[in-house]
Specification:
This protein is an alpha+beta fold. It has 4 helices and 10 strands; from the N terminus they run ββααβββαβββαββ. The strands form 2 sheets. Strands 3, 4, 5, 6, 7, 8, 9 and 10 form an 8-stranded antiparallel beta sheet that branches. It has a two-stranded antiparallel ribbon with strand order 1-2. A hairpin with a 4-residue loop joins β6 and β7.
């Protein structure tokens, strides 16, 4: 064994501490970049976002951290759990973290619902009614938009305005 070899080679692979830290540091960097990108792009108040097409979908949701690192997605109108998300889901978590920071900084309740609004153009907005902040999810590409789009319920226009078409169980 060479006096410079510290036993980091195993079956031809480099297991040095520097090489082993590469993946976690890359993941942290990606999450930070996404968070900063969200902070830079979602600062428009609700009044400044004006979709040019009809609303085709809507849902009011709450997101809560579970004790085991999960995120519990709940329909704010019915109180029913929609989904429990395991670890991962980086875009959803980073988006909610950015919106949550605005709420916390302004002293608003963290458990207030968010609104998802979808339009005929394909635009999907995540709206925080408490801070009046909007994230245009369409701007982050189809895969990231799909993370939230699956929660939207279709709406129809009736005599009393727009109403959500309930999911069939």
């Amino acid at each position: 064994m060479d006096h410079h070899d510290h036993g980091y080679q195993h079956h031809g692979h480099d297991h040095s501490p520097a090489k082993m830290m590469w993946k976690p540091l890359t993941a942290i960097g990606v999450v930070l970049l996404l968070t900063f990108t969200l902070a830079a792009t979602w600062t428009e108040p609700i009044a400044q976002i004006s979709p040019q097409t009809a609303m085709t979908g809507f849902r009011s949701l709450t997101f809560a951290d579970g004790l085991d690192g999960t995120v519990v997605v709940t329909d704010a109108q019915t109180g029913e759990a929609v989904e429990t998300l395991g670890t991962g889901n980086g875009f959803l978590r980073a988006t909610l973290r950015a919106l949550g920071k605005s709420r916390r900084d302004a002293g608003f309740p963290m458990d207030a619902p968010f609104h998802l609004e979808q339009y005929a153009s394909g635009q999907l907005l995540l709206i925080d009614p408490t801070t009046e902040r909007v994230i245009d999810l369409w701007a982050f590409g189809a895969p990231n938009k799909a993370v939230f789009e699956k929660y939207v319920l279709p709406v129809h226009e009736g005599d009393g305005g727009l109403s959500v078409v309930e999911e069939k169980s």
